[in-house]
Amino acid sequence: MSSQPAQALNITPNFFVKSIPGVVSSLAVRQGTGPLAKILRSNALYPVFQPIVALADASIHSHEALIRGPLNTSFHTPDFLLAAAAREQLNFEFENTCVAAALVRWGDLCESGRLFVNISAEVLVQVIKHCGSMPLIELISAFGVMPRMLVLEITEYERVADMDHLAKVVAEIRSVGVSLALDDFGDGRSSLRLWSQLKPEYVKIDKYFTKNISQHADKLKTIQALQQIAAIFDTDLVAEGIENESDMRVLRDLGISYGQGYFLGRPEVMPLANIEAKVLGLMRDRRVSVFPELRRASSAGSLSRLAVLDAPCVGLSSTNDELASLFLQHETLHAVAVVDGTRPIGIINRSQFMNEFSKLYYREVWGRKHCLVHANLAPRLIERNHNVDELIGILTSDDQRYLSDGFIVTENGRYVGLGTGEQLVRSVTETRIEVARHANPLTFLPGNIPISQHIERLLGSGTEFVACYADLNNFKPFNDQYGYWRGDEMIRLVARIISAHCDPQRDFVGHVGGDDFIILYQSDNWQAQCQEIIAEFGKLAVSLFDESARLAGGIQADDRHGVPRFFPLTTLSIGAVKISCCEFATAEQVASVAARAKHDAKTAGEGLYVRDAILVNASR
User: Fold this and answer.
1) Hey, how many other C-beta atoms are within 10 angstroms of the C-beta on 401?
2) Which one of 81, 344, 487, 548 has the fewest beta carbons within 10 angstroms of its own beta carbon?
3) What is the pLDDT of residue 91?
4) Average pLDDT over residues 413-438
């Protein structure tokens, strides 16, 4: 296959430019002394074509035309060509020549698929301004390219000062059948407003967000957000920069429409008819990817469930008599905020104040004096959009007044109400539990919600998998004997061993809670992996026991009924069930049969126990 068919294109310098009268003179090219001007005069530019692949069925949807310069020179790559165009002030001539080269070559090849052609927003606006859309379409058709199969990929749209005018230009082009794509969305130059105004048929996601997406949960979350925007504007997303199988699987399973990158096909002189058989097989493999999860359980998060007491307040001039009257009117009020206008400056505890107020002669002596003397002038202020970290500080503070007084709730610094210590403890606990459902705070492994979501994806894919439930034997007496710190260390040991033995791209590891773990296997060697996990844990867990326990082979401790007995060293049991999508419909059913398999494994003793899914279903 030839790698430089430039002479076969028979394109005169700036053919596309000269075909549009009045756009620009080609004098700069004819008389230019720079290397790019010489390349343009010698007709040495030529296009290569990179496939854009439909990720759902691995078919080739279209090709993007990319320009190349003379082989074995620094000007072979687009970066050098673009830099030279800027130096020689030939940006307009260079870009138009590139467009012409792509269109002429595509027409000569008589290709029937869609063609993506790069054009800057500035050049597109100028072309339409000087010749209108119909002459442009006639010119494109003369090249042998059908307008409805052409996709103009808009680049450098950050330079356009008048977005409204660009939107009108795009509408004019779209009216004659040409489609539109936005290039490199998310690279820092892109604009949501532009997406909203132009409503392109395609948006190409910048490769920063797709590269190594299988290892970065934040990138995955960003693309999921882009998918929501794309659904609003009825836009297909194209993931650029796909360079390995893992990233391809994640993007496919996310439901991204199209992909582009070296893994799917490199730029070639001749358009690719089919992707390579090896890549095709990988794309059609229906085993689902393991989405990366945020490994650390974030303590931050809005506590919207926290009720705010719409409590009355007192001002700087309020007296003790007035405050006492307020407390008597509101018998359940635990405290009152002191405000300067709308700004809270202190809080007065009901019990402490009423104890003082009820003393002999207090009313006569202090009743008409300012109540500010009873205020805690360092109250805890929490904005309505607070997070857990702010409230945790109250619970861990050495100043226990914060628990008895509660805290003052503000909005933009203005007083809105009070919160109680009881509400605080309940809300923090509920939020921590909710966070743990997403990521276990001890091991940072996915919690119950991601586990259920992955099971549902597995069932939806139609692929067979193995659900394993791992649990420790004799963990409670170990934890009772040595305390929570060493117990947590043993649980973290289980997490490390399981994660190390599983394929992170195929096998999902989740932490249900306590010493219970879920493994969802797609690897063929899952049984060998389970046996290795059990053996390695048995070898390493011994070091967590005291020497006397290691020599005795166990510990003396009370059982669940308070009866002293001997417990062997802690071991690991794994119950396994082979799952077929035709037998199970929900994640709850899978979790239920896996839990029964775990029970069977613990009953049988340490080791791996494989339960027949048919028998499990028959027993339901």
Assistant:
1) 16
2) 548
3) 84
4) 74
